[in-house]
Amino acid sequence: MADTRPKPPKSLLRQVGRAIADYRMIREGDRLLLGVSGGKDSLSLLQILRHLQTYAPVRFELAVLTVDPEVPGFDPSHLPGCYPDITWHYIRQPLIAQARTHMNGDSFCAYCSRMKRGIMYRICREHGYNCLALGQHLDDLAQSLLMSIFHNGQLRTMKAHYVNTVGDVRIIRPLAYCRERQTTDYARAAALPVVADSCPACFTMPTRREHMKALLAREEVGQPNLFGNLLHAMRPIMTEGGLPDDAGAHP
User: Fold this and answer.
1) Phi then psi for 107, rounded to 5 degrees?
2) How many other C-beta atoms are found inside a 10 Å radius of the C-beta of residue 219?
3) How far is CA 202 from CA 10, 173, 211, in A?
4) What DSSP line would sit under 30-87, residue for residue?
5) What top-level class would CATH report for the domain 10-237?
6) Model confidence over 194-246: pLDDT tens digits?
7) What percent of the chain has pLDDT over 90?
8) pTM, entire model
9) Which of 34, 37, 31 has the alpha carbon at shortest distance from 127?
């Protein structure tokens, strides 16, 4: 079945294409698993990757995984039906409930992220996917950089492309050069089936990430080139060298 949704704008396609080329993210014969939460970013990336499949110089397979944390008021179960032509893995696990009894010093976000990553790796191994695609964008990377500097005294951020600690799955972030406002605009224009509040626990309590997001927004008002400068500064730490950002993830 052909996808009749509007194709992604050239600006998004160009930036994703640059990131993929710069970091050699997608290679001939890759079997990609894309993590889709139901938010605007991962759904936009799904559309972008589907479009790239039609003309990319390398052939790759694409499947999707959604982890349903079983939170009241958050229901992504309609997503597979919106894309009947895609292999869609749908896993239900009560992550928020588990976090209340099992997390030890973590935030809800950190605990759920670690557990979701473990599920993603398991699905990759069980079904032979060698590459895991995630939907974080430049805004996410910039926020992670500031959080690492402010709270840990380290120059670290999410990597654009790396191999997990076990060494059997490559992780890529094709939106690494894209701004959040771009996925917001595209998701709205294309009427993507976005699930409201894709991480409900984070919307009910303040987070460090939200604080950094607000700080960057204030600074960008007076410095229009802020995120371009941050990207330039982060490039040396966006490569595979150093500690993978999945260290400590649930296996």
Assistant:
1) -80, 165
2) 12
3) 32, 22, 12
4) -EEEEE--SSHHHHHHHHHHHHHHTT-SS--EEEEEEEE---TT---TTHHHH-TTS-
5) alpha beta
6) 998 655 555 555 578 889 999 999 999 999 999 999 999 999 999 865 444 55
7) 75
8) 0.90
9) 31
